[in-house]
């Protein structure tokens, strides 16, 4: 019976690859039948089942996977590589099962309609349009900094508990009146990651577990960055699997909320991407725009920069390579560079 199960799972893997190929060519199918159908039901069920657990069940699942792989490798070595055919079958069956569960509970969202098509906006924009949008963000950011900071030379200090920030972000989603985005977020399911220290060394602020749909955030990052990080992970939980789309949603949700601290986090988040994009197009103009920012705003940026510099090392380079390749495999051909395309969504959406 065991061999029959292993054979069925192993043979199922190439059929999964064929299905993925077909779905890549038909994103409208994925959007209609999965993202707006099965996933809406399954994700809500996952939230109800796991949100009450105070720790990340998904992190424990990852730990169990690593343990299973280590034990399997140990047994392979201990057996002196005998019965390689059976071992290979076990490995294929294991990969096939994990691949199936990954796509069933979340991964098919990688092949849904691009967000700009759902919103009916373009992905093209001129330098003049980017300049106008960036200037508007700078003005709003400076005005808000003047309201929240003691003077123009100090950063905006987020003297709140992480749980408070988490509650604000959840309320931003539930109270949102944005009719363009489909954000049926009914059950709060964000948790501190048990792997926050490794995440810091790897250069990651958070992630969503595709098997449990729990959102995990790196609790070590500066509190000023937590609102957009949390909003980004909720965007993933809602089925927007691509990084640029989750960044766009995080920006919109926080910038449009009434909470001034969420607004500031969102404005500076969107502004960072806009200034980076402007620097690629016109470095001198970018520097001139940066000079218009209040010194305190730059200190908020510096706070985040110094945090990541404290954890910079070879692990980060390895993780960037691994995750970049992961994105490429999952329908994001530009890998880590796909993060930059949030600017195209922002500029055209606010046109």
Walk me through the structure.
This protein has 15 helices and three strands. The model is unreliable at 314-332 (pLDDT under 50). The protein starts with a helix and ends with a helix. The protein has two domains: 2-111, no CATH class; 115-349, no CATH class. The chain has 351 residues and is mainly alpha-helical. Helix 7 (162-174) packs across helix 9. It has helices spanning 2-24, 27-50, 57-78, 84-105, 115-119, 127-148, 162-174, 196-202, 226-237, 243-256, 260-281, 283-291, 295-310, 314-329, 342-349; strands at 190-192, 206-208, 215-217. The chain has a three-stranded mixed sheet, covered by helices on one side.
Number of strands: 3
Provide the domain count.
2
- The percent of residues in helical segments reads 55-70%
Q: What gyration radius follows from the Cα positions, in whole Å?
A: 22 Å
Average pLDDT works out at 87
- Main beta-sheet strand count, sense and barrel state: 3 strands, mixed
The arrangement of helices and strands along the chain is: HHHHHHHEHEEHHHHHHH
Spatial sequence of strands, sheet with the most strands: 1-3-2
Overall form = globular
Report low-confidence residues grouped into runs of 5 or more: 314-332
Instruction: Assign the structural class, choosing from mainly alpha, mainly beta, alpha/beta, alpha+beta, or little secondary structure.
Output: mainly alpha
Number of helices: 15
Task: Give the distance, in angstroms, between the N- and C-terminal Cα atoms.
Answer: 61 Å
- The fraction of residues assigned to DSSP E strands is under 5%
